[in-house]
Amino acid sequence: MSRASVLRLLGVLLGVVAWAALALTIAAVIFAGSERTVDLASHEATVSPDFSGEIVLRTGPVLPDLRAPSDTVLGLDIELGKTDTTSLQELMSRYAAIASQPDGQIAVVARAVRTMALAALVQGAALAALPFVLWFVVGRERWGVLLRGLPTGPGTIAGLLVLVLVAALVAPFTWGRQDPLPQRWMPLADFVGDDVPLPEQARDVEIMGDVTTGETQRLIASAVSSYQQGQAFYSKAADDAAALDLREPADDETVVLLVSDRHLNVGMDEVARAIGDRGGATAVLDAGDDTSTGERWEAFSLDSVSAAFDDLEERWAVAGNHDNGTFVRAHMTDLGWQYFDGTVLRGPGSSRILGVDDPRSSGLGNWRDETGLTSAEVAERLTEAACDADADGRRVNTLLVHDADFGDQALERGCVDLVVGGHTHVQDGPTAVTGSNGDVGWTYTVGTTGGAAYAIAIGSKLRRPAGVALITYRDGRPVGIQSVTLQTNGRYDVDPWVALTY
């Protein structure tokens, strides 16, 4: 290689290094000036990254702010916005429950940060390339002429215009962020006092010491106590699940975990996953009512159940009557859950599955482009879809609904193998049904996975027994069900595995 070639190669390498360094510098500036609005901890929250190495949670004008080290150079400023809470006590109870199962909320923030980082890198790369593009477009000789003209009046004006242009391109990404006013921070342990022992996870947490009223201290202490109770109860239940006497699946069998009616109880998500792991489940069915009203503030419940089963490729779901509106279905779909639109899908273990959202919620979605259908009309269309598939030799092996009653007609006509749902908060079945054509199908209702007495189950412990089920598939058909119930005192009741025969 000639000397000229070596010099050219070195020039190219130096140019690439210079571009990369400039791109990273610009990207860092843009990233530090970014922000994203997300649904976090039942709030509309603004997430802003920085390089402080601290995570600061700004809770608003009533409660004190919190901060903790991030253990990296990256820092975050999270400002909680509006929420629908009716009392501070209710809000603190939510915080305690969410904090006991933080994976879903961590995933939300992580996605926002990754999005901002990627956008900053793309913008930084593009802006850093501009001077190099200009260099090649203008050419060496022309740049020489321009540089020699800088000392002149027109040259000075042109140089200033270039600087203004660069500032105009970068400045919008850094506007709107103001340096916070000096704040007085104190360890959370000092704030709540010696009477409230803190969990290990909160040892490094600090609280803004400008608000130290007795009522605030009682609220914080109550939240810490609720957090510890919930953490202890659900963590122990998850650990105990590893020793449950569950049926072991054969090599040619597929096991699916069935959950329903979680009603915001994120504490049960790690328990349900632990039961599924113990039973060999590789997929999950969600029969709905993950929320109480279907509002955006309840996104933390959807994020939590998705985080619990994030590594499972097969996840099917329907919206329950409390999952009102379109938000639940849209958000869960974005998180990787498979919903239904009136067509038969490939189901667990090479089976076929069909489902429908509960029509009693306004978020029914389209059933073959029809909206506003009554419960009877939905049941009729569901039956026709299942029986048409059966007549075509594509028998529906699993009918997933929120309320198993929607599958009664399909069972009576002998068109499906198994109907599963929830809704009643009480386990029922499995029960065999002989159809008018002589074929046998089964119906099964799982108890409330959230341990819900009413529409909201969030709290430090179960309000009523919590249930899940393990459905076994073989040769493309469901062949058995085993029910598992966690009692309010932490004891497990495991039902015998029931064989489904046809």
Care to describe what's here?
The N and C termini lie far apart (78 Å). The protein has a seven-stranded mixed beta sheet. Strands 8, 9, 10, 17, 18, 19 and 20 form a seven-stranded mixed beta sheet that branches. The chain folds into two domains: 3-173, no CATH class; 242-499, Purple Acid Phosphatase, chain A, domain 2. The longest helix is centred in the first third of the chain and has 36 residues, at 103-138. Residues 362-370 have low confidence and may be disordered. The chain contains twelve helices and 20 strands. Strand 1 and strand 2 (43-50) form a beta hairpin. 42% of the residues are buried. The chain is of the alpha/beta class and 502 residues long.
What's the pLDDT, averaged over the residues?
Answer: 82
Helix/strand class: alpha/beta
Question: Largest sheet, described in full?
Answer: 7 strands, mixed
Provide a count of the helices.
12
Name of the level-1 CATH class of the largest domain = Alpha Beta
Spatial ordering of strands, largest sheet = 1-2-5-3-4-7-6
Helix content: 25-40%
Number of strands: 20
